[in-house]
Amino acid sequence: MRDTLRRVPFLRMLLPLLAGLGVAPCFSGVPHPLWLFIATLLWSMAWGISRHPAREREWLEGLSLTLFFVVLGIFLGLRSRDVPTPVSGDRYLATLLEQPYSKNGRTRAEALLTAALDGEKVIPAREKILVYFPEGYAGDSAVAGSRILFGATPAAIVNRGNPYEFDFRGYAADKGFYRQLFLAGGPWQMTGSDPRFRLRVAAEKTRDALLTLYRRNGLCGEEFDILAALTLGYKKSLDTEIRQVFSSTGASHVLAVSGLHTGIVYLILSFFLGFLRRGRFTRILFPVVSVAALWVFAFITGLAPSVQRSALMFSVVVVGDNLRRPVHIWNTLSASAFLLLVINPRLTGDVGFQLSYAAVAGIVFFQPRISALLRFRHRLPRYFWELLAVSLASQITTFPLSCHYFHQFPVYFWISNFVVIPAAFVFISLGILVLVTSVVAPVSSFLAQVTGILVHGVYLVLENTASLPGALIPGIGFPQSSLVLAYGVLLAGALFLVKRKAVWLHLSLGAAVLLFLAGAAGRWYQAGSREIIAYNRREPVIHLIAGFRNYLLLPRELMESGDPLREAAAVTLRCRLLPPVMVPLEEDYHDRFLLKKGPLFSFGGILAEISDGRRTPSLPVTPDVLFLTGRGDLPSFPEEVQVVSYRRAPPPQAGSKYHRVNEMGAWRRPLPHGPKK
Biggest alpha carbon distance in the chain? Predict the structure, then answer.
């Protein structure tokens, strides 16, 4: 182990840095300069010890360096969580960083707030914000670099407070966004283009120009959407159906520009620029041109964490190869992660960053071992076996993360990868040819037609694969504790394969047993759980959970509208519940768990009333919980009644038991456990 760490010095730096980033939130009250002072002190101590080497002091030098990187991680983690101080004024000026696009019925764009105007005074600012355009805005006049003058004040990004919902606030913060702007809340106008050069804007304009070339050559529909995502990292036009097909077949990774795409670009560069390597004086040009081209590709495709990782790793490999220096893959992988985290510590929470490094680590470690299980003499079966080995290796190390974040497993991922990985090479090559030959319209149009046909064919294969029986196993969820145990199983198992010591095998099996027991305990607990949830959404939706059986009380019109009810779906998926029983608020219902009669329902020993204010006679009983909906007259209620309101304005007698879901988030009430069913 010590020899391995000596050959992988960046791993010795990366692990304590990750530890520091992980514990940084625990020290949020400590001033940042203090951590910087401690880090400087530890570095000075390690440097001083190294100047006077002695075997008995080696451990002290190692400890000082380890603590230095831990403290550095704490400092960087705390600094990355500093929220920009908002500026205030009568009007604001912002520059769009991308062209507005529509998603979930909203048109939005990322923007950079550059100034606040207070009368005649201009207050400089530099803060990234999310801009939401008014409903019905086409966005034709707005492009990357356009400036907006507006009067509404950006508001803090908040979550809706529903259980197991996507943490959009944390996701946005990891991207550097803390506030959002709804232009419908005040006057606004476009004010031309920002004259300053901004790298992000230049990259967006370049990508938009390349996308325009695709469109001019006749690419449209799903063919354009898939090719744009695969070659240029533009995924904003991908519809839900395409995403679902790729997700269900385990092929989503080709839609996110990553190491596969960067590797293909590098192969193409090596093919066309390989002659530079043979010249004595041109040899130095190959790494310069190649590295520059890789980073241009990374910028144009959006600089996703996976692209940053792959571009950085390939840059190290290219430079090392040119200097005839051997490159240790684990050290290169660790170095890229270390540098990216020092630049942007918030990447630790990025799903793409985690999946990218997990996949590469799996391929590096497991692929040679899987490949060695079978030997083929002929090239074709050997190629497909190597391809399968890569798919299996990456799936081993990404499986826990995929279950944790996406709660599903694509069974036929190995079939789809036989198709999409070779296809990715073909599509990227053809996409580049379409762009390069655009000056010769007939040639580029022909190539675009061929590319469109091939893309459509691959998509049909994936559609048919997704429709196979048992193609997707839904409802697989790893909570945080199970995720740690799952990677404990993998890590101990990997160490057993390397060390061949029984202790690692025992640890791996022990972690596997704990993982199984944790899952069984969770299922046992859920079987006896009882809970009422009122979700934070415009229409009233009340979720009643009795073990794995559950009910949704909601208006009939909402039930018939086809609304996916994502809030309830998240709870159903995370708790592995049965499909919910839909109960319209306008109807009566009864079974062994739920009795509903008119506005009253009884569930788990709780009597509740759903009131829209239109009922005048008083009920002969006092409910434990009162759900206020609609806009009618407010009913009177005793102070001891728990009031859950879907209304904007609280009633006059609202007390400590009043809960407004649109301000306070979803209301949840766990009930005493019932029998295990």
Answer: 97
Distance CA 258, CA 238 (A): 18
119 vs 431, residue with greater confidence: 431
- What are the E-state strand segments in 535-634? 542-546, 549-554, 581-584, 589-590, 594-597, 600-603, 606-611, 625-628
Q: Residues near 628 by Cβ (< 8 Å), separated by ≥ 6?
A: 611, 613, 634, 635, 643, 644, 645, 646, 647, 651
Place of tokens 């093919």: 271
Decide: helix, strand or coil at residue 180.
Answer: strand
Q: Coil, strand, or helix at residue 667?
A: strand
Q: Are 544 and 603 in contact (CB under 8 A)?
A: yes
Phi-psi region of 95 (alpha: psi -120 to 50; beta: other; left: phi over 0): beta
Buried b (16+ CB within 10 A) or exposed e, 46-77: beebeeeeeeeeeeebeebbbbbbbbbbbbbb
Each domain of the chain, given as residue ranges in start order, spans 2-80, 91-196, 204-474, 480-527, 530-671
pLDDT (average), residues 470-487: 88
Residue whose C-alpha is closest to residue 487's, from 364, 398, 359:
398
Q: What is the CATH topology of the domain spanning 91-196?
A: OB fold (Dihydrolipoamide Acetyltransferase, E2P) (2.40.50)
Rounded to the nearest 10°, the torsion over CA 39, 45, 50, 55 is -120
Residue with tokens 């037609």: 449
Q: Which amino acid is at 432?
A: I
Sign of the alpha-carbon torsion through 71, 327, 284, 269: negative
CB under 8 Å to 634, separation ≥6 — which residues? 613, 628, 651
How far apart are alpha carbons 346 and 253 in whole angstroms?
Answer: 22
Residue 463 tokens read as: 């559609």
Q: pLDDT tens digits for 635-655?
A: 667 778 898 988 876 665 655
CB proximity list for 247: less than 8 A, separation 6 or greater: 406, 408, 410
